[in-house]
């Protein structure tokens, strides 16, 4: 989840812990200067590698995402210890809880904290293996007799959140918030599309000028294939070969069999001629 939809929804980045990072911002790999996603996208649209703009630096800009094999941000482990022990309500959305360290986070909250799980299925979240229970404390206990805090809502994330907001009396506020945010995003996307439409002719002109200035090495210039324009070049027999191939295909299709040997047509023609000659002689 690196698309930054939480930021788009208007949540303060300081209240987010994006464990795998986000593509909304980037940093120089040399000097750590910060760059926005829009700036990086503008470079990519011009077919340019994003480079640091500082005069003393030539580093490449990479998005703030965690790639395979890279460790999670240090802030992740810090906030796990700080935030989960203060949690009053834990809501888990749209995950199977099969991957660590996220699967074991649900046991970090106090024992009296309610845990709401909104997902399309619940079986994957119920850890029953003895080793899992011993090491990670197990999963949810939806169907246990002694369950007093785990609630499962079988639903898509959006529908489940709407249902929850309705139950606690926040549905109207949520509906108005969604409508206002959609209007804001539509306006931003329209402005960006207009900007791209304005810059497109300039970018195309720039690319055409680069192609026009590109010189082809002499050894890569294609040879002329027309014998009239190049007397020293041997005539091209491609057309003749194509005519022979076409004639062969026509002969095979007319005979009704594709397994005939190449010489069969010639023998048949000779047989027909000799038969006709014999009839004429008689």
UniProtKB/TrEMBL annotation:
Nucleus recorded as keyword: no
Segments of this protein annotated with the region Disordered: 196-282
Basic and acidic residues composition bias: residue spans: 226-244
GO cellular component terms, A-Z: nucleus
Binding-site list for Zn(2+): 28, 31, 52, 57
Keyword line: Metal-binding, NAD, Transferase, Zinc
Catalytic activity annotation: N(6)-tetradecanoyl-L-lysyl-[protein] + NAD(+) + H2O = 2''-O-tetradecanoyl-ADP-D-ribose + nicotinamide + L-lysyl-[protein]; N(6)-hexadecanoyl-L-lysyl-[protein] + NAD(+) + H2O = 2''-O-hexadecanoyl-ADP-D-ribose + nicotinamide + L-lysyl-[protein]
Molecular-function annotations in GO: histone deacetylase activity, NAD-dependent; metal ion binding; NAD+ binding
Active site: 20
Protein origin, superkingdom: Eukaryota
Polar residues: compositionally biased ranges: 247-262
Location of the Deacetylase sirtuin-type domain: 1-171
Protein name: Deacetylase sirtuin-type domain-containing protein
Source species: Magallana gigas (Pacific oyster)
Lineage of producing organism: Eukaryota, Metazoa, Spiralia, Lophotrochozoa, Mollusca
């Amino acid at each position: 989840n690196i698309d930054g939809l939480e930021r788009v929804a208007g949540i303060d980045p300081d209240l987010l812990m994006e464990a795998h990072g986000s593509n909304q911002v980037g940093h120089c790999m040399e000097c750590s200067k910060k760059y926005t996603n829009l700036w990086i996208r503008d470079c990519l649209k011009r077919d340019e590698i994003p480079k640091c703009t500082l005069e003393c630096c030539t580093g490449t800009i990479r998005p703030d995402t965690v790639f395979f094999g890279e460790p999670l941000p240090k802030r992740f482990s810090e906030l796990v210890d700080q935030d989960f022990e203060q949690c009053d309500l834990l809501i888990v959305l749209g995950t199977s809880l099969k991957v660590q360290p996220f699967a074991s986070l649900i046991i970090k909250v106090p024992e009296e904290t309610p845990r709401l799980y909104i997902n399309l299925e619940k079986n994957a979240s119920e850890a029953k293996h003895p080793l899992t229970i011993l090491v990670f404390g197990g999963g949810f206990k939806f169907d246990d007799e002694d369950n007093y805090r785990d609630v499962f809502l079988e639903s898509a994330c959006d529908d489940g959140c709407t249902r929850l907001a309705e139950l606690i009396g926040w549905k109207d506020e949520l509906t108005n918030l969604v409508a206002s945010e959609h209007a804001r995003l539509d306006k931003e996307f329209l402005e960006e599309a207009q900007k791209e439409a304005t810059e497109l002719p300039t970018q195309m002109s720039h690319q055409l000028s680069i192609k026009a200035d590109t010189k082809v090495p002499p050894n890569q210039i294609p040879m002329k294939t027309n014998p009239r324009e190049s007397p020293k070049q041997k005539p091209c027999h491609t057309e003749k070969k194509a005519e022979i191939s076409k004639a062969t295909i026509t002969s095979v299709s007319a005979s009704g069999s594709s397994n005939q040997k190449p010489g069969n047509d010639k023998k048949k023609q000779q047989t027909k001629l000799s038969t006709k000659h014999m009839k004429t002689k008689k």
